[in-house]
Design brief:
Number of strands: 40
Structural class: mainly beta
Radius of gyration: 23 Å
Shape: globular
Length: about 550
């Protein structure tokens, strides 16, 4: 039996929802302000996972103007064995101001995991993190967090369950409040229903999205409860198994729960799967902080833990503990080798389409501004808004999946105004990025390579480290090592790589580094690498990119 290393999906792959259909495994993860929305990964061995597409990629949602970390939250995959349909439920978080958390939840269906997916069916606006459960009798139920806004009541609220009408939308009957959590960690959310040996089991996330995160479980003989808490009184999976009392805290970083003895942190938000080999696993999110820090540039990643049912019918980790591990036992009699290069990227843009892993913040990808057809063998990106914009930035980005990697590109760009730029960089959100770009020099008579930075909303132009680009063509390389970024360039294929100024401390491009209040997390959307272009002039300029590579070390 092989051992598989966590995370199985590195980089931004949070809130994983896992299902099995036959011998195929699928995981859906959150995408927030990124499009296309809802990543779907596939595996046959639990070790190697490939992004095969997105569930919301035909304009189902408009994410322009989305503030970090709103957008598309906590998708939930399910499979109805009676109709042979895939279902995906999700929340569109539209407002978080005043802790009102206005979110509409929907479900889409498809005959194939690769779509086409149906038009969204409205479920509710009661809260967020919906999950759909298909019962044996053909009824369907939705479980979700009912967001609490009343002063003096336990936040974030109750987990509620109702029968749901998947054909016409909405619920049948009333919502049933079943729990505010099965331990004292509080912040119960992300409920998911399962049925096993005559019990309905309710798996929930708890402890907030920070270092006190965990997976809790309760059970009932009837779908609407009452639900009996796991008798241990503690999460069944966590990175920090010490007792935490945090009832009434709607969400917190809980930095005091950081476990110095674990590489894995923030383990929580779990989803259960039963394998064709009669084994049980939970997919869950996790984070890996920078060494010696509590900042997580890669955001929340996807991991797996091997599980078992104990003699009393409770789900627990296979080793009997509740401490999440960095490796786990693979499937019985399914030999596998986990690829060390599966998350590298090498796209030379010679095909009709570009790599499916490219995502764009806020706006949808459209051939009108990004394509491989106008100049075959290149990715042409037409410039639009400044990267401070949450409306129409022309950014093509891929998830950072390692704390030590190199991203590289070659581009040709002919700016004829100082508001036209193109290049390569690191991106967290509209207020936080690092951008090595070709642009006009300040006298507007030749092209230079210069770095522009956004740090907590402030604009920093690194004027004194620029190099002339005589033929408007340059290769740019960014070496990222544990929060430090070094930009290099070369102007001809035969030239040696040259550093562009000093290295940059970009540790702030992390979930804890972006606008977080004391004790809170500023975001949970993770670091991306990108190529892109800006035109705040006449919207006529474009950049041609020869290739894009990411090599994880």
């Amino acid at each position: 039996m092989s051992r598989i290393q966590n995370p199985i999906i590195p980089g931004m792959a949070p809130d994983p929802s896992i299902i099995r259909v036959g011998a195929d495994y699928y995981i859906a993860t959150s995408t927030f302000h990124w499009t296309p929305a809802v990543q779907i990964f596939h595996s046959t061995d639990l070790a190697n996972w490939q992004l095969i597409g997105y569930a919301l990629n035909h304009g189902e949602v408009d994410l322009r103007g989305t503030n970090t970390p709103a957008g598309i939250w906590a998708p939930h995959l399910s499979y109805d064995t009676r109709t042979k349909k895939f279902w995906l439920a999700y929340s569109h978080m539209q407002n978080m101001v005043g802790r009102e958390f206005n979110s509409d939840s929907f479900a889409v269906s498809a005959d194939s995991i690769t779509g086409p997916w149906s038009k969204p069916v409205y479920l509710t606006s009661i809260g967020f993190d919906p999950a759909v459960f298909h019962d044996d009798d053909g009824k369907h139920y939705a479980a979700i967090l009912e967001w609490e806004t009343r002063t003096g009541y336990q936040a974030p609220g109750h987990i509620v369950i109702a029968e749901v009408d998947l054909e016409n939308g909405g619920i049948i009957g009333d919502w049933h409040r079943v729990t505010t959590g099965f331990t004292t960690r509080g912040c119960a959310e992300a409920p998911q229903l399962y049925k096993h040996n005559g019990y309905y089991y309710l798996l929930i996330a708890a402890g907030g999205t920070g270092y006190g995160h965990g997976v809790e479980i309760g059970r009932s003989k009837t779908v609407f409860g009452p639900y009996e808490p796991n008798p241990t009184g503690e999460p069944i999976i966590t990175s920090s198994p010490h007792h935490l009392f945090s009832l009434g805290d709607p969400d917190a970083g809980h930095f005091e729960m950081f476990n110095p003895n674990s590489l894995m942190q923030k383990a929580g938000h779990g989803s259960l799967v039963h394998t064709q080999t009669d084994e049980w696993y939970v997919a869950h999110l996790m984070s890996r902080p920078l060494p010696g820090q509590k900042k997580n540039p890669l955001g929340r990643e996807t991991s797996l833990q091997k599980m078992q049912w104990n003699a009393d019918g409770w789900l627990e980790m296979a080793d009997g503990s509740n401490l999440a591990k960095m490796s786990f036992a693979g499937l019985k009699d399914v030999p596998t080798t986990q690829s060390s290069t599966q998350f590298d990227i090498n796209d030379d843009f010679t095909g009709d389409t570009y790599d499916v892993r490219f995502m764009t913040p806020y706006r949808t990808q459209a051939s009108s501004w990004v394509n491989t057809t106008e100049n075959p063998g290149h990715l042409r990106i037409h410039g639009h808004n400044s990267f401070f914009s949450q409306v129409n930035p022309s950014i093509m980005a891929t998830r950072a999946t390692s704390l030590d990697y190199t991203v590289q590109t070659k581009l040709t760009f002919h700016p004829d105004h100082y508001s036209e730029t193109a290049g390569l960089g690191l991106y967290y959100d509209s207020n936080n990025w690092l951008y090595a770009r070709l642009c006009q020099d300040d006298t507007e008579d030749h092209t230079v390579l210069r770095v522009l930075q956004a740090k907590l909303g402030d604009r920093v132009d690194h004027l004194f480290d620029e190099v002339t680009v005589p033929n408007d063509t340059a290769e740019i390389r960014l070496d990222y090592h544990q929060g430090i970024a070094q930009i290099s360039y070369r102007l001809t294929d035969a030239a040696d790589w040259q550093p562009l100024g000093d290295s940059f401390d970009v540790t702030y491009l992390s979930d804890e580094g972006v606008n977080g209040a004391p004790g809170e997390i500023g975001g949970f959307t993770a670091l991306f690498n990108f190529i892109g272009a800006v035109d705040a002039h006449q919207l006529q300029s474009f950049a041609d990119f020869d290739y894009y590579t990411v090599r994880n070390n």
